Amino acid sequence: MTLIIILLCVFVAMFLMVTLGEKFGKPMTDEQQGKYSKITRILVFVLIVAAIIKTMF
């Protein structure tokens, strides 16, 4: 029963994020997308390295 409640809460939260994002969100410029993609690549690389180090020790 607890799992069903948790899943229901997750779906309600996702529904709210999508609807509010479509209503109030504004599109990003190409410069913003480029900046965020660079930051995302670096963060993903750092997380992968951290996971490998954690697994080794």
Automatic annotation (TrEMBL):
Keywords: Membrane, Transmembrane, Transmembrane helix. It comes from the Bacteria. The chain crosses the membrane at residues 37-53. This is HIG1 domain-containing protein.
